[in-house]
Structures are given as C-alpha cells and as structure tokens.
Amino acid sequence: MKIKKIFNNNVALTEDSNQTEMVVMGRGLAFQKKNGDEIDPVNIEKTFITPSKAFADKLSDLLDEIPYEMMELSKDIIEMANGDLQTELNDSLYLTLSDHIHFAVTRTKNGVPIKNALMWEVQKFYKAEYRAAFKALNMIKAETGVSMPEDEAASIALHLFNARQDGSGMEETMAMTNIVNDVTNIVKYHYGFDFNEESMNYSRFITHLRYFAYRILRGELNDDNNDGLYQQVKLQYPQADQCTKKVQAYLKKQYEMEMTTDELAYFIIHIQRVSNREKKKAFL
Predict the structure, then answer these.
(1) Domain range for 181
(2) Residue 222 shares a structural domain with residue 195
(3) Are 135 and 174 part of one and the same domain?
(4) Around Cβ 196, how many Cβ atoms within 10 Å?
C-alpha cells in the first residue's frame, strides 16, 4: 500500500495493488514518510475507501483544523455505535462526526451551548441512536474533560441516524422524497403560501418529515397514543389540525397507514410552528 498524499503524520491517502484509493488512519503512520513510500499495515487503525476526489479534498481541509485526537475519539464512538445499533455506519460519518464534536467541544468550553430543536423527536422516535449518543457524551467527557449538554446527544444521534448504511439504496430514498414532497404540498396548498426554503423553520419541518417518512417505509412507527396531548393541541390549533387531517387521509390512502394520536399531535405542532412563522414573514 503506497502513499499518494500525506494529510498529516496520522492520516494519508494511499493506493493498493489494484489502484484502489483509500484513506488510512493511525498514530504516526506517515511520520517521516513521503509520497511513494509504503505504509506499514501494523500502524493502520482505520481504513476507508474514498468515494471521490471531493471527499479526499474535504478530509484534507478538515484535518487542517481538527486534532487527530478528535478523529480517534470519533472512531471509538462510531465503533461503539456500530455495535449498539447492529449496523455499519457510513464512512462519511468519520468526517461529519469529527467536525461536529470538535466544534461542539470548543463551543461548550467557550460557554456557547446550542439548543437542539429536534430534541423531543430524537428522544421519542430514535431511542437506540439517542442511547448510543448519550454514551458518546460520556466518552467525550472521559477524553476531553468537557461535560456536554444533553442537547448534544440529540445532535449526535441525528448524525448516527443519517449515517446508517443498511442497503436501503436509491429506491427508498426516492420513496422518502415523494412522501416529503407530497406532505409539503398538502401544507402549502392548505395555507396558500410558498415556503421560504432557505429558512430554518422550513429546514426543521423538512427534517421532521424525512424521519417520519423513513419510519413509514420501515414500519417503525410510534405505537404510543397520547390522547391528552392530541386533544389539547387540536383545540389550540384548529387550522393546523385540519391540515393534519389532510395529511392523515393521504397517508391512509397511499400507504394504508393509521397515524396514532401521538403522531397526529406532533404533526399539528410542527405544522402550526412552520405555518405561523411563514405567514408572519409573508405579511412583513
């Protein structure tokens, strides 16, 4: 395995005998090496194939900013999550998670915590990912001495969810996209306005829809029925309730899916939030 590019003393781009490019990680594996030298396999702790030149370039930029210790910490967290979730997480997670953890630790040290707007949904619907992410907080504290706020567990859980690599492929992605588009159109035409697709409100709403669509296609829907919450929010937000009923009818017709009162309540809240804020902006 020959070195094609050295990112730093601990990470290098290599090429094997089949001309397959791989990024290899390991403490000191590229120390005093140069392009064309062989890498000792004993020193390699992690190997992953580069999907594109853009990926390798992004890795190079990232390594200019992130200490190798953060990459090692992310590797340990991902290995823990692979075992706990019984899946193989996408290699791109090594980049996104290292970047997130490094930034989050820096923010926390500087007293700048960030609230996770999806905390409620993550705890409720992605319990396995959240449990693994909570373990990650303890691993981060043990390595860095920094106690992260619980919101960071939700953020890490979303990274784990997005990195699932279980053969779902393009067919499922297209089906998820169709559900998101259809539900978005239902909301848009019910209220009679276009979304500001650059807004955070829209981004949060679409994120919720994507995870909801994922659960529909996997048959992993919430089985709780919190009738008290549903009765409260449908009285408080009657127009959002009417819109949610249209979504409910669409899902029943297209996917033979019966929404629980929990799901109905969450949809009412999300639709009320995004519609109220979009309407305010429309009339400014």
Answers:
(1) 169-282
(2) yes
(3) no
(4) 15
AA letter at 198: E
Q: Provide the number of structural domains found in the chain.
A: 3
Last residue of one domain, picked from the residues 103, 136, 162 = 162
- Say what the pLDDT of residue 284 is: 38
Sheet holding 2-8, edge to edge: 2-8, 11-15, 21-25, 46-49
pTM for the full predicted model: 0.60
Q: Does residue 80 lie within any of the structural domains?
A: yes
d(CA 251, CA 244): 11
CATH number at residue 27: 2.30.24.10
Considering the domain boundaries, does residue 269 fall inside one?
yes
Q: Are 49 and 20 in contact (CB under 8 A)?
A: yes
Q: Are residues 189 and 208 in the same domain?
A: yes
In a domain, 23, yes or no: yes
Q: How many CB atoms lie within 10 A of CB 191?
A: 19
| Mean predicted lDDT score pLDDT of the chain | 82
Cα(50)–Cα(63) distance, integer angstroms:
15
| Contacts by residues 40-44 (CB-CB < 8 Å, ≥ 24 positions apart) | 41/1
pLDDT digits (tens, 9 = 90+) for 3-46: 888 877 888 888 887 877 888 888 888 888 888 888 888 888 87
